[in-house]
């Protein structure tokens, strides 16, 4: 209840929202719908309604269609600048954001820990206020979610989570766009997560039910998702009439799943735990044996980089694997995030059926 009240209060304070038209299929008359994203932060998808997340996916599809397929030039971010804070190394997050922001006419500025040491060379509060005066938005890839929360609290510009210990929302947007393109609709899909109870799983748990998707997640004992996230995910599942299964049995999680999903077992900062983690995750590798328990139309996702112990080559390089379209869609979804938070642009492409 408190979350929903806070969400309503935040929405009431927003300005310059996006407008789009959806047809009433009985009368054919347009219905005015308002999605307000301009000026907001994207720290976790739990702060966004299903319609707001769908809007970002619609905008992603629109930009991909107009730029990649039609060859249009859309300088929607001309004159805008983006600060990119990276405490962790990156391939997809950095490349997708830099090239995407520049493709839309904006100027991205990459800042490593040697350039900006969060909370050490300068306080988080001071850093946030300085960047607010020099850039139009900040994407931060950090170790601690609390650092993002502080940046957002002190900033007067949008702060976007490029990855933290708790959430990775921009990755999940790319996953959903990929599944939307493949299946035509997200509603009713069963997602089967097999792996660590990490930031990727947390982001799925904060959003899947809002699309009418079911979630079955298997994690080893001691690697379960955060209890507060699990509690809220149960609430979302109840509100949206979906199912949520948390188990320690990989085959139970895979049973009937449309989408098999995993991630690295050893994230950056966990290298010292490698030997123990590899032992604890025995039996969690996704193979064709796992796939036999899944639905006939199963597909596979992995946010990359991938290690063979997480998924074998037969699955990873199979025609069922969507990992490389998934990686490309990181670009189109982060572009959509930036456009939605910084402009009043509305999609021209017909709204997909989610």
From TrEMBL:
Gene Ontology BP annotations: citrulline biosynthetic process; L-arginine biosynthetic process via ornithine; urea cycle
Entry-linked Gene3D superfamilies: Aspartate/ornithine carbamoyltransferase (3.40.50.1370)
Major location (coarse): mitochondrion
Domain Aspartate/ornithine carbamoyltransferase carbamoyl-P binding: 40-181
Keywords of the record: Amino-acid biosynthesis, Arginine biosynthesis, Mitochondrion, Transferase, Transit peptide, Urea cycle
Substrates-to-products reaction catalysed: carbamoyl phosphate + L-ornithine = L-citrulline + phosphate + H(+)
Short name of any one Pfam family annotated for the protein: OTCace
Enzyme class, broadest EC rank: transferase
Role, per record: Catalyzes the second step of the urea cycle, the condensation of carbamoyl phosphate with L-ornithine to form L-citrulline. The urea cycle ensures the detoxification of ammonia by converting it to urea for excretion.
Protein name, per record: Ornithine transcarbamylase, mitochondrial
Lineage of producing organism: Eukaryota, Metazoa, Chordata, Craniata, Vertebrata
Gene that produces this protein: OTC
């Amino acid at each position: 209840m408190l979350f929903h009240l806070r969400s309503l209060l935040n929405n009431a304070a927003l300005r310059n929202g996006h407008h789009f038209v959806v047809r009433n299929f009985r009368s054919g008359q347009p219905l005015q719908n308002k999605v307000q994203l301009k000026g907001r932060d994207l720290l976790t998808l739990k702060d966004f309604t299903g319609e707001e997340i769908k809007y970002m996916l619609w905008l992603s599809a629109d930009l991909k269609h107009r730029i990649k397929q039609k060859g249009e030039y859309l300088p929607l971010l001309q004159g805008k600048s983006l600060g990119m804070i990276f405490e962790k190394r990156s391939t997809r997050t950095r490349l997708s954001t830099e090239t995407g922001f520049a493709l839309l006419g904006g100027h991205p500025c990459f800042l490593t820990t040697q350039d900006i040491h969060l909370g050490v060379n300068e306080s988080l509060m001071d850093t946030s206020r300085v960047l607010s005066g020099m850039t139009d938005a900040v994407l931060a890839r950090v170790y601690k979610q609390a650092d993002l929360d502080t940046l957002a609290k002190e900033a007067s510009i949008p702060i976007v989570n490029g990855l933290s210990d708790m959430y990775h929302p921009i990755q999940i947007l790319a996953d959903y766009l990929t599944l939307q393109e493949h299946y035509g609709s997200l509603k009713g899909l069963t997602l089967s997560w097999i792996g660590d109870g990490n930031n990727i799983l947390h982001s799925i748990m904060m959003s899947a039910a809002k699309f009418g998707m079911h979630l079955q997640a298997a994690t080893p004992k001691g690697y379960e998702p955060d209890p507060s996230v699990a509690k809220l995910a149960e609430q979302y599942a109840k509100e949206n009439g979906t199912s949520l299964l948390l188990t320690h049995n990989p085959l139970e999680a895979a049973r009937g799943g449309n989408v098999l999903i995993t991630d690295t077992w050893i994230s950056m900062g966990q290298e010292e735990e490698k030997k123990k983690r590899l032992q604890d995750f025995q039996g969690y590798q996704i193979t064709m044996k796992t796939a036999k328990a899944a639905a006939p139309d199963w597909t596979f996702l992995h946010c990359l980089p991938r290690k063979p112990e997480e998924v074998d080559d037969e699955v990873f390089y199979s025609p069922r694997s969507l990992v490389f379209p998934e990686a490309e869609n990181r670009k189109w979804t982060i572009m959509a995030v930036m456009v939605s938070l910084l402009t009043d642009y509305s999609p021209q492409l017909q709204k997909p059926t989610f």
